[in-house]
């Protein structure tokens, strides 16, 4: 009898223990994104093991970078504050002058801790061969394999094309950027471009998932397989193979030279583009140029675990430094993408709308997109637009009324 | 150039938009904003201007809890109303001891999940087992919400003398597993096994939380507390996880300490601690011990976090059921917790106003509840907070902090004059930013930072007489209360 009872009790305990071990760490209500990791913005991983997210507030690494980076990032902070975005920034100072292994290590650790970073571009000196690009180092060591540049025409800007709306997705870690160069014989330099099936498939899958998630219609693979039949051929083949899994999305491919021409003559035909590293670099600069230059496009980099957000074209804007004329739009939109990624969609939408209102309706623009306003004017206008949407001011007047 | 311009612009905007009492603060902030890389000026500025979420108003769940909870929460509501906080409460009563009036557990959990933020009183847990489920209601809520981390920031209140003053350290406790697994059984009659569960996943998570918390608040050291010399596997795992996590944070010093030694150190030299991280039961004990060091359960706020939900409550969990209806409970802890909640929701402005006022009332020493050695009632305290609040944040009355305020005249309602002075002092001081450049967050007589070296002296001068001279009767009542409350 007693043994019987004991075994029943024991069973009960065993099931409880199992339930505890399996279920205690994550409640049923919020475990989305833990089973199947997805890289897409808006479906950010919920695990605190990756993100420093507690009680709904995220800590985010802020890498200052060179040129106008520090200025623009401080504006972003200011606007986030006014928008009440639940973000705390951990500022890591990193730029071309702090090029020591420790600085690099610190920056990397910080991103590893927080999972997400907002970054100004770091300059690369190209005259010194021993100087490895810190941007590239960051991308490879964090495993940020995909880079996204969003180019969308801002209504009201007086530009050649007003119907650009494309997403450029670029393989970020291999190809021409492996930094494998050597001089076999004096006067002969070999520069290795590496293409692997694994990474090509990964980026293609990423592009298709992105297209599916954002309800895009078409994915275009860009390559030069007519010349590099093996290397780019492999990339193209991988894309084709992945495309079979996504029958709802149209797939085609274009050769890079033709793609560049099409991009400047009829950009509206492009939707989502999927490219190896160097082509992606060139084409995203072209596309960014179409919508208003490097100050307007937002960029982001995704890896399996980490995400880094930056301006779309990776210029540091050294010449604009301290002149108060840099365009904050690109960095701000990148910040909004970051908010989306972290699940703060409300704040992201609010800031994005304010940015568009200021640029299109109020027409307060920096010189690079045909205006005459300073960076500060634009930021101030955005803040003025954001403020009433948060309405805390109203409660202050209520406070006054309470005592009268 | 650009940054200077920006500074000017924002500095000016702040000066214009603020009352004269905070103008000093604003201009000094404007100056600081210039050095962008110095980490915090932006967050510091956040206190100067009110900001809220996109919808304008927030909603938070309110669980009043057992014992004096409902009374204290009523006080919080009153204060919030007076301070014009754009916050609505979704109140639901849940209790283990009066199950008939209790709301459904799932409803409460759903409310917390939806609002992401909540204020919670203490739920009493009966010590006797009458059959049924072993897991307590508190644990059920914690598990369902996955509130894995509990933070108690132990700080001495300025002007309130206890055995140790100027304490400032943080206790972080894992609170979903360990001894609280509610897995107990009788294997043989007369022999009970009680399972303590330690998992790598949860240990890593709490370790990461502790280090992240330390980073965010500019702390220097994390101490992992354990009993790995006895429980070599269980606590050993916890300790190893902390060690491993510390490698990601090279700037933060890491050390381990055994729980028994830790308790001794806490009562003999608590100043050595900065951030402490520990498993469930040790955390519970140390929370209470540390709360006792700075004045008891009535003055220490606490908070619990999951990745998406934050629940704010008292640091040491006592429902104080003996005091129900007697109007003697100390609302300090609940009010400070509610301020932490506001700050968490980006309502820094309101949090600042209320926290300033509460600390001012404590420091003023005239209105104190019994456990702090005074004779005032809960409602007096709340009333005082509301009226001080008016003085601090309302339109400038024109009565400045002139020399007259320094003379100690008992017949003059001192608080008015003091509040001006103190507003000035707090402009320079403790609240705006934790531990920047090593200063204490609560400035007390002992000024740790060069910035606050001057004003506190004036204030201690003014207050010493009032705050220390609590008569013997008051002291006795403290003792009695401590016994009943703890």
TrEMBL record, chain A:
InterPro entries: Isocitrate_DH_NAD, IsoPropMal-DH-like_dom. One of its GO terms (biological process) is tricarboxylic acid cycle. One of its GO terms (cellular component) is mitochondrion. It is found in: Mitochondrion. It comes from the Eukaryota. It holds the Pfam family Iso_dh. Its main location: mitochondrion. Residues 59-382 form the Isopropylmalate dehydrogenase-like domain. Keywords: Mitochondrion, Transit peptide, Tricarboxylic acid cycle. The keyword Membrane does not apply. PANTHER family: DECARBOXYLATING DEHYDROGENASES-ISOCITRATE, ISOPROPYLMALATE, TARTRATE, ISOCITRATE DEHYDROGENASE [NAD] SUBUNIT, MITOCHONDRIAL. Belongs to the isocitrate and isopropylmalate dehydrogenases family. This is Isocitrate dehydrogenase [NAD] subunit, mitochondrial.
Automatic annotation (TrEMBL), chain B:
This is Isocitrate dehydrogenase [NAD] subunit, mitochondrial. It comes from Plakobranchus ocellatus. NCBIfam families: mito_nad_idh (TIGR00175). It holds the Pfam family Iso_dh. InterPro entries: IsoCit/isopropylmalate_DH_CS, Isocitrate_DH_NAD, IsoPropMal-DH-like_dom. Keywords: Mitochondrion, Transit peptide, Tricarboxylic acid cycle. The keyword Transit peptide applies. Residues 59-385 form the Isopropylmalate dehydrogenase-like domain. GO terms for biological process: isocitrate metabolic process; tricarboxylic acid cycle. Gene3D superfamilies: Isopropylmalate Dehydrogenase (3.40.718.10). Belongs to the isocitrate and isopropylmalate dehydrogenases family. PANTHER family: DECARBOXYLATING DEHYDROGENASES-ISOCITRATE, ISOPROPYLMALATE, TARTRATE, ISOCITRATE DEHYDROGENASE [NAD] SUBUNIT BETA, MITOCHONDRIAL. It comes from the Eukaryota. SUPFAM superfamilies: Isocitrate/Isopropylmalate dehydrogenase-like (SSF53659). It is found in: Mitochondrion. One of its GO terms (molecular function) is oxidoreductase activity, acting on the CH-OH group of donors, NAD or NADP as acceptor.
């Amino acid at each position: 009898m007693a043994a019987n009872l004991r075994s029943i009790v024991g069973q009960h305990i065993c099931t409880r223990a199992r339930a505890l071990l399996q279920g205690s760490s994550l409640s049923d209500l919020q475990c989305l994104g833990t089973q199947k990791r997805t890289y897409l913005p808006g479906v950010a991983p919920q695990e605190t093991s990756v993100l420093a997210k507690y009680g709904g507030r995220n800590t985010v690494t802020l890498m200052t970078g060179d040129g106008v980076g520090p200025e623009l990032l401080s504006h972003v902070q200011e606007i986030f504050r006014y928008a009440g975005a639940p973000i705390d920034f951990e500022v890591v100072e990193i730029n071309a002058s702090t090029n020591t292994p420790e600085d690099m290590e610190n920056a990397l650790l910080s991103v590893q801790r927080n999972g997400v970073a907002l970054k100004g571009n770091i300059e690369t000196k190209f005259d010194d061969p021993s100087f490895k690009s810190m941007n590239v180092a960051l991308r490879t060591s964090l495993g940020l394999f995909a880079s996204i540049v969003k180019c969308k025409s801002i209504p009201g800007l007086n530009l050649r094309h007003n119907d650009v709306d494309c997403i450029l997705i670029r393989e970020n870690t291999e190809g021409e950027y492996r930094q494998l160069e050597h001089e076999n014989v004096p006067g002969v330099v070999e520069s290795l471009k590496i293409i692997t099936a694994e990474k090509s498939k990964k980026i293609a899958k990423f592009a298709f998932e992105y297209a599916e998630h954002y309800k895009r219609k078409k994915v275009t693979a860009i390559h030069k397989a007519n010349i590099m039949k093996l290397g780019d051929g492999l990339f193209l083949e991988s894309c084709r193979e992945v495309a079979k899994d996504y029958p709802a999305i149209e797939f085609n491919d274009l050769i890079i030279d033709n793609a560049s021409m099409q991009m400047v003559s009829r950009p509206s035909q492009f939707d989502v583009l999927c490219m190896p590293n160097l082509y992606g670099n060139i084409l995203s600069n072209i596309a960014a140029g179409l919508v208003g230059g490097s100050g307007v496009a937002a960029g982001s980099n995704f890896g399996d675990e980490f995400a880094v957000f930056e301006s779309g074209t990776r210029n540091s804007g050294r010449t604009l430094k301290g002149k108060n004329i840099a365009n904050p739009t690109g960095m701000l939109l990148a910040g909004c993408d970051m908010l989306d990624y972290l699940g703060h969609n409300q704040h992201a939408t609010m800031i994005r709308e304010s940015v568009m209102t200021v640029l299109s309706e109020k027409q307060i623009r920096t010189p690079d997109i045909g205006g005459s306003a300073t960076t500060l004017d634009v930021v101030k206008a955005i803040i003025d637009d954001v403020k009433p949407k948060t309405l805390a001011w109203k409660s202050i007047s209520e406070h006054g009324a309470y005592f009268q | 150039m650009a940054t200077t311009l920006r500074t000017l612009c924002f500095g000016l905007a702040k000066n214009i938009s603020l009352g004269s009492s905070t103008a000093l603060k604003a201009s000094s902030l404007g100056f600081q904003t210039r050095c962008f890389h110095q980490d915090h000026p932006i967050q510091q500025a956040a206190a100067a201007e009110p900001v809220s979420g996109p919808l304008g108003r927030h909603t938070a769940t309110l669980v009043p809890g057992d014992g004096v909870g409902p009374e204290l929460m009523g006080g919080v509501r009153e204060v919030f109303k007076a301070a014009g906080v754009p916050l609505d409460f979704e109140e639901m009563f849940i209790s283990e001891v009066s199950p008939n009036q209790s709301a459904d557990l799932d409803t409460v959990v759903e409310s917390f999940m939806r609002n992401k933020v909540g204020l919670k009183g203490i739920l009493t847990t009966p010590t006797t087992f009458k059959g049924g489920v072993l897991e307590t209601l508190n644990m059920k809520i914690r598990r369902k919400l996955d509130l894995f981390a509990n933070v108690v920031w132990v700080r001495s209140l300025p002007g309130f003398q206890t055995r140790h003053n100027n304490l400032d350290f943080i206790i972080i406790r894992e609170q979903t597993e360990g001894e609280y697994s509610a897995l107990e059984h009788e294997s043989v009659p007369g022999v009970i096994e009680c399972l303590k569960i330690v998992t790598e996943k949860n240990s890593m998570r709490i370790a990461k939380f502790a280090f992240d918390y330390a980073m965010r608040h500019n702390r220097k050291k994390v101490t992992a507390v354990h009993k790995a010399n006895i429980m070599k596997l269980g606590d050993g795992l916890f300790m190893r996880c902390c060690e491993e996590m510390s490698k990601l944070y090279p700037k933060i010093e890491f050390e381990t300490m055994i729980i028994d030694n830790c308790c001794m150190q806490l009562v003999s030299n608590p100043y050595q601690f900065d951030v402490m991280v520990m498993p469930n039961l040790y955390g519970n004990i140390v929370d209470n011990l540390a709360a006792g060091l700075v004045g008891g359960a009535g003055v220490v706020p606490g908070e619990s976090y999951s990745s998406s939900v934050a629940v704010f409550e008292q640091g040491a969990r006592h429902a104080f059921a003996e005091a129900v209806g007697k109007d003697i409970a100390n609302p300090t802890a609940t009010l400070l917790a509610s301020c932490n909640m506001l700050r968490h929701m980006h309502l820094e402005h309101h949090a600042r106003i209320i926290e300033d006022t509460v600390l001012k009332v404590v420091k003023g020493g005239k209105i104190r509840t019994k456990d702090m050695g005074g004779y005032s009632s809960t409602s007096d305290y709340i009333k005082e907070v509301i009226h001080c609040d008016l003085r601090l944040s309302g339109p400038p009355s024109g009565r400045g902090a002139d020399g007259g305020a320094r003379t100690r005249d008992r017949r003059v309602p001192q608080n008015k004059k003091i509040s001006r002075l103190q507003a000035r002092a707090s402009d320079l001081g403790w609240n705006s930013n934790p531990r920047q450049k090593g200063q204490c967050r609560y400035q007390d007589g002992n000024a740790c930072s060069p910035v606050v070296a001057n004003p506190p002296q004036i204030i201690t001068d003014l207050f010493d007489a009032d705050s220390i001279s609590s008569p013997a009767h008051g002291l006795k009542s403290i003792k009695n209360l401590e016994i009943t409350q703890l």
